[in-house]
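Q: What residues go here?
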C-alpha cells in the first residue's frame, strides 16, 4: 500500500472494520466518521480524497461534507472476499456461501473454522454454477470415506477445510444417482459420526 498520512490510514482501517464484508462498501456519513476518528468533517473529506488518489477506494457522490455518500475499497485493499454481483441479487451468493459453511459445520470430522480460503473457494463454486446439492452430496461422500479411514485407524485428525472436497465435488457432478442413495449415505454418515465420537471419549 502507498504511504498514507496517519489520518487517512486510520480512516482506511475504520472502513475495513465497519464496511459490508460481502461488498467492501460503507455508507459515508461524514459526521459519524468524524466522531469515530475524532477528526473534523473537513479532515474526513481530505482523507477520503487521499484514499481515492492512492487508488485504494472509490466514493459515490456527496454534494458536500454534510451529506452522505458511499465508499468502496478496491479488491486489492479489501481483506475479505467480495461476493460477486453477477447472477442477479448478490444476496443469492451470500446465501450460497453461508449454506456451504453450515454444511461443513454440521460434520464432526471437519474443523469448525470457515476461513478466508474456504470463503474464496465457495465464491468460486458459486461463479462456476456448482449446485448446492452437488456440494452437499460431495461433503457426504467425502466424509463417509473419511470416517471409514478414521474408524479403521488409517488417518488421524479431522478434515482441514473446503478444499479437501474439491475432487469429490467434481466426482458428484458426474454421477447419476437417486435421492434414495443420498438419504442412505446420510444415514450411514450419522452412524459413522456416533461411532467415531464414541472412540474419542
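A:
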Amino acid at each position: 500500500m502507498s504511504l498514507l498520512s496517519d489520518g487517512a490510514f486510520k480512516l482506511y482501517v475504520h472502513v475495513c472494520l465497519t464496511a459490508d464484508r460481502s461488498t467492501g462498501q460503507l455508507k459515508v456519513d461524514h459526521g459519524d466518521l468524524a466522531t469515530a476518528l475524532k477528526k473534523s468533517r473537513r479532515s474526513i473529506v481530505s482523507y477520503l480524497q487521499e484514499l481515492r488518489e492512492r487508488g485504494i477506494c472509490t466514493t459515490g457522490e456527496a454534494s458536500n461534507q454534510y451529506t452522505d455518500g458511499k465508499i468502496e475499497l478496491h479488491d486489492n485493499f479489501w481483506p475479505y472476499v467480495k461476493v460477486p454481483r453477477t447472477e442477479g441479487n448478490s444476496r443469492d451468493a451470500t446465501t450460497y456461501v453461508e449454506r456451504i459453511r453450515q454444511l461443513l459445520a454440521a460434520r464432526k470430522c471437519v474443523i469448525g473454522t470457515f476461513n478466508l480460503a474456504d470463503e474464496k473457494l465457495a465464491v468460486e463454486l458459486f461463479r462456476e454454477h456448482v449446485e448446492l446439492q452437488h456440494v452437499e452430496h460431495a461433503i457426504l461422500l467425502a466424509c463417509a470415506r473419511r470416517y471409514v479411514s478414521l474408524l479403521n485407524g488409517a488417518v488421524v485428525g479431522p478434515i482441514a477445510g473446503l478444499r479437501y472436497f474439491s475432487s469429490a465435488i467434481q466426482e458428484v457432478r458426474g454421477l447419476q444417482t437417486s435421492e434414495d442413495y443420498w438419504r442412505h449415505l446420510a444415514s450411514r454418515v450419522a452412524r459413522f459420526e456416533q461411532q467415531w465420537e464414541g472412540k474419542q471419549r
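A: Context that may help when evaluating the design: Strands lie at 25-28, 57-59, 69-73. The mean pLDDT is 85.
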